[in-house]
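Action item from last week, closing it out:
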Amino acid sequence: MAIMSSFDPTPADRFSFGLWTVGNPGRDPFGHAVRPVLDPCDIVAKLGEIGAWGVNLHDEDLVPFGSSAAERDRIVGDFKRAMADSGVVCPMATTNLFSQPIFKDGAFTSNDPAVRAFAIRKTMDAIDLGVELGASTYVFWGGREGAESDACRDPRTALANFRDAIDFLCGYVKDQGYDLRFALEAKPNEPRGDIYLSTTGHMLHFISTLDHSEMVGVNPEVAHETMAGLSFVHGVGQAMECGKLFHIDLNGQRIGRYDQDLRFGSEDLKQAFLLVRLLEGTGGGARYDGPRHFDAHAYRTEDHDGVWEFARGCMRTYKLLAARAAAFDADPDVQAILSGTTEANLVDVGAGYSAARGEALRGLEIDAEGLGAKGLGYERLDQLMVEHMMGARG
């Protein structure tokens, strides 16, 4: 008999998976599927069985492209019953704007206005589906919103068309009275040679130009930011600092590779530790209270039993890292290093500029040479982090 541990997932952890993640049949550009395709209702039942909280989906993950209205309603009805039976909820939905040939040169950014209109109409229908299933967050990943040859369009035109689409869809959500927020997902490349709005920082600025920026945030993904050679923790921290982390995609990725979508924590364990520490707020910052979504898939070597081992592993690793992060931040040796700041009475520049504060700054006696010579103890801090990660402390 299996023994429950404190690291086994429960719905209270708010872990979610996409139909496209645990349902991935192991197909890749060089090989056919190695696993039979799973029925979405069976996926939901199994997710409930292993302790997951939520299931996310693209419209076509559930309702095949071109289905009739009657087929759509039958499929959705069966899926809703499966969710009710398993206790699994649908916190997020999105639209597939990349698989169909019509999107070969983009969806919202296509040069062809008929393609752009089709993409927006398809997204309106998919938003209706997501809301019907209970989703409160709607993600946009522009997988085809880019170019191989930039001679095909002015990037300013592409961005303007993307903005028009998001503004229009925000208007649609408001007009329908839906309680729904949008989250934009960045990626630097693949499947396009270059994708517009390639990092979380690009997305955050773009959001500031929207008509309804208050209802739009970001959905950063570990693999996507790592592909760009950037610190995912920094990108997530920036999104949290400006109140725009509406959703997050967790997985594993090796820098310099194609989009691998590996099991969370299976690569760069230190970055995974720091990310969980940030999300859980164990270092003193505000805790992220949204879903912990795993946008990853099992190795192609696995059968369906291996897929569910993969899913359990994602959740268990997150909980293990959360426990290690809490122990690290409670360690007196860690606290002593992090609290070792200057004792001088400094000017509060956070209160804003005033002539008096400017003069007070000029009058401060600061020992620049002494501060420059002072060791900060970060080598020991980093070693303490490694020892906590490895279970040698705490």
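Closing note: Residues 42 and 82 are 8 Å apart (CA to CA).
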